Amino acid sequence: MTDNTVAVLGAGMVGVATALELQRRGMAVTLMDRRAPGQETSYGNAGVIARSSLMPFNHPRLWGTLPGLLRNRSAGFCYNPAFVAGNLRWATSFVGNARQNIFAETTAALDGLIRLSTAEHRRLLAEVQELQRLRDNGWLFLYRDAAGFDGPGAELGRATMAQFGIATQTLNAAELQDLEPVLKPVFAKALWIQDSCSVDSPGAVVRAYADAFVARGGALQTADLRTVRHAGDGRWQVIDSSGAARDFGRVVVALGPWSQKFMAELGVDVPMGFERGYHLHYAAGGSGALQRPIYDTAGGYVLSPMEQGLRLSTGVELNHCDAPMKPRQLEAAEASAREALPLGERLEQPLWMGRRPTLPDSRPVIDEMPGRPGLWLAFGHQHIGFSTGPGTAALLASLMLGDRQLPLDPRPFRASRFL
């Protein structure tokens, strides 16, 4: 195909990184979305780029915790029964993938994608002169009692990290206090995941990448995207809500949680769940400062030091993509966080919500749509779209341009798993 024009649909981290990489590889790229870059889920996440994120939620120990989760009272997990009942294909497949052989394939695939993405993030942050936003001091999993630390899921997580050579250190209460003096003495143990980094503003990082894309000649277009259609000459037309159409040689769908609805317009049923999450920013309530993100495993929240203040991010709410927000989970997380450290006043209103698009095996699709040459897919990154966007871009660009040597094995991310 000689036409080097590409439309990248979606201006979150995955879409922006893909646009940048295709541009670097010589393509004429137009980046399109209804909002400015980095305004959706890529804005509000915890900002962690961690190799520990290779652990999917549907791991083999899920079966033992499932009865408790179904009671719908967990601090870190809640669900709308109507959503689950209406999406049984996704729900049963998600739980069914909590098998050892699938888990082994998923962890290996995600480890490769995270390692590639971390290197790409460092390169990009240096190029856009935002490397100062990156912290290299890891993050902490906190346990309020020994039972939590010794639980089957936590034990499997440590064994898996050890299997992949991820640097960690177990801390007792005194060692944790030395590392993070601002924390109250409510945690019996901690796991310091040293093989990870974090940023102080994920939204600002996405915007910096998007600004570099535009500065290098890329086109950024705001449009309420409706569908695409094959033009019959090997090209694709992108159609917005006004009916206006633009022709491109290739199209990349990187619309995150809205990819499901977009693909449905093409008659494609994407089995996707929406792990919604909330955040608010708070002032620091004491004289000390939190040095790195923390994950309170019992409280079900992550607290990250950000440019805007301390960002409290909740766990999972399984629900319809655009259902009304429910502040209950955030309020419970805030109460737990106030037990853990001197959290100050809320710094903003209203409550923010993001949607983590999750496929049944917790791996994204990074591939060409089967039977539709020129239509490429990059979505389904669950909790780790911000951290794995640049690696996704590197793999997708190599596949699109027919490279003989690929940066990692594409088979775990093939579209034919579900489509």
From TrEMBL:
Signal peptide limits: none
Nuclease among keywords: no
Domain FAD dependent oxidoreductase: from-to ranges: 6-399
A GO MF term: oxidoreductase activity
Pfam annotation, one family: DAO
UniProt keyword 4Fe-4S, yes or no: no
The EC number(s) this enzyme carries: 1.-.-.-
Enzyme class label: oxidoreductase
Keywords attached to this entry: Oxidoreductase
PANTHER family: GLYCINE OXIDASE (PTHR13847:SF289), SARCOSINE DEHYDROGENASE-RELATED (PTHR13847)
Name by which UniProt lists this protein: NAD(P)/FAD-dependent oxidoreductase
Organism: Comamonas guangdongensis
